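Lab notes, practical 5.
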Amino acid sequence: MRRRYEFRDRREAGVQLGELLGEREWRDPLVLGLARGGVVVGHAVAEVLGAPLDVAVARKIGAPGQPEFGVGAVTPDGPAYYEERSLSMLGLRPAQLVDICAAERAEARRRAVVYQRGRPPQPRAGRDVLVVDDGLATGVTARAALRALRADRPHSLVFAAPVCAPDAAAALKSDADEVLCLLAPHGFRSVGQWYADFRQTEDDEVIELLETP
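Output from the prediction step:
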């Protein structure tokens, strides 16, 4: 059976997402691309909205021996977030993940420094902050980012992505004021299945997009 893609690449997806978001009125909107792939989508969204673009960084905390299985996530600062159901299923406690958490936080801090390149973060207080990613699968990194951003006292905190797993989108509504997805298909298996081109986004591309007016 031939696979049917919905988006050619992250930029095309970002343009479509921007058009959806552009149907609304926003209060001094700020687009935050969730690094790395979300910055590509976010750049297109920011262009459509005529809004500034900045970056949010969160790193998945993988299970020991299963790094792709996210049991939590961490941002450059603030407490780590853990998915209690995943911890329980694997018989894990946060104390057992201290070293993995520290390594991921260090990488999150490295990326934040590299991407900001000495620029202060865009102010978030009192604004509609739109956190954009290329997709939502488990939601652990999005949840960690949203919880950290809530401390900046935005007027509203919205998560938006071209494609979302329906259950993850529903669960994320406890941390975002609104969750907006172009697609929330019941046949969701992975974010990449909905893109013809889902190659990995590199640091250099993130830096270039953040420096492009």
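Observations recorded by the TA: The chain has a mean pLDDT of 95. The longest strand covers residues 66-74.
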